[in-house]
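okkk here we go again. third time trying to get the flavin-adenine dinucleotide bound version out, last two times i messed up the smiles copy paste (missing a bracket lol). double checked this time i swear
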Amino acid sequence: MNRAVRILILGDGTAGLNVANKLSVLLGKDEAFITVVGSSSRHYYKGSGFLIPFGYCKPSESYKPLPFLLNPRVEHIRDEVTGIRVKDRTVITKKRTLNYDYLIIATGTSFAYDRIPGYLGEAKHFYDFEHSMELKGILNDFTGGTIVVGTADLKAPCPPAPFEFAVLLDQFLREKGIRGKTKIKYVYPAKNVFLIDKIAPVFEAKLKEIGVEIETEFQTDSIIQKNHEIHSTSGKSINYDLLIMVPPVKGQDFIAESGLDHTNNFAKVDKNTLNPEGHDEIFVIGDAADLPVPKAATSAIFAAEYVSKKIASNLGDIMLGSEYEGDVGCTLYFGDGEGMTVYFAYEKAISVQKPKRFDYLLKKMEADMYFSGIVRGMM
Ligand SMILES: Cc1cc2nc3c(=O)[nH]c(=O)nc-3n(C[C@H](O)[C@H](O)[C@H](O)COP(=O)(O)OP(=O)(O)OC[C@H]3O[C@@H](n4cnc5c(N)ncnc54)[C@H](O)[C@@H]3O)c2cc1C
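finally!!
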C-alpha cells in the first residue's frame, strides 16, 4: 500500500487556512497528511482595518482562535519557518525540520518600514490589528487639522484600501462633527487616483464630491518628522497633522534565502500553474507570490482552489478542470452606505458595477462570511 503524501503548508493566514481546509475535504485520510506551519496565535480578519479605527466594529469580533477555523484533520504547528532546502524537500523552522512531498508557500507579506526613512514612529496605518487599535485611539482624540491618507507601495495588499479609508474617514469626521475643521488629502503614487483605468474616474469623482484634495504622482520618499512633512521622489512636499499611510511591503526573507527566484522576497511563479520554475512539487499562493494580479484575499482563494484541485488530480481523485486563471473579485467600501463590486481575471476584462446599498450590506457581512465560510474553505 502506498504511504500518505505529506503536504506541508507554510503560513496560517487566509491562503494557508483556506487551502488546508479545501485539501482536507478533497483527499482521504490515508492519502494525505496535511500540516500547516504558521506563527499566528489567532487568526485576524484584515478587512477589520477599515472598521476598528472608526469604532464601526468591536475589535474582539475581528479575530478567532485557529482551532475554530481548521479542519481537525489538519495538523497545525506553531513555529517560524526560517528556510527551505528545495533539493532535499525539507523545511527548516526555529524548532524542527519537516519533510514534504508537496509544499505550499502562503506566508504573505511583511512590512518594509525601512524603505521610507522617517516612517517608523510617525506614520500610522490600519494594516494589522495593533496599528488599527492605535489609530482608533488617535482618531477618537482628533479635533481637527490636516489628515493625509495615502500609500507608500502600489504593490501592497488590497490596492483600493487608501480610497476606502479616505471615504470612511470623511463619513466618520462628519458623524463626529469635525469635518468642517479637517482637510483630507489623498496622496497617490500613480498618474491617476487608482491603478486601474476603468475604476480611477469613479474614485476621483467620489473623492471630489466629498471634498477630498487629491495629489497624484506622489511617491513618498521620506518623512521629515520634526516638520510633519512627507517628501516625494520628484522633490514635492506635503504637510500634515496626522499621516495615515499604507506601509511598504516585502515577502518573507526565507523565500530569498532558500534560493527561489523572487522580487522583493515575493516568489516568482508560473502565472498559470503557480509553480516556481523547475518545481512541480512547490506552489506559491496568496500575497507571497509575485503575480500580475492584485494581492487580495479573493485572489488567494482562487489560487487555493486551483492548487487543491491540482494536487487532488495528481493523486487521481478528481479531473482538473483548468489552469489558474488569475480571477479577482472584490466588494469595496464606497462611503455613505454604498459599496462597489469589481471583477476581473487574466483574460477577462474588468467589470465595474455601479456603487449601491446592497453591496455595502454585503461588505458589512464580510467578516461573518469570512470566518464562517471563506477561510474554512467552503468558498
Ligand atoms: C486593511 C486591509 C483590508 C483588506 N481588505 C480586503 C478585501 O476587502 N478583499 C480582499 O480580497 N482582500 C483584502 N485584503 C487583503 C487580504 O487580507 C490579503 O490579501 C490576504 O490576507 C492574503 O492572504 P495570505 O494568506 O497570502 O497572507 P496572510 O493572510 O498575511 O497570511 C500569512 C501568514 O503567514 C504567517 N507567516 C509569515 N511568515 C511566516 C514564517 N516565517 N513562518 C511561519 N509563518 C509565517 C503569518 O503569521 C500569517 O498567518 C485586505 C488587507 C488589509 C490589510
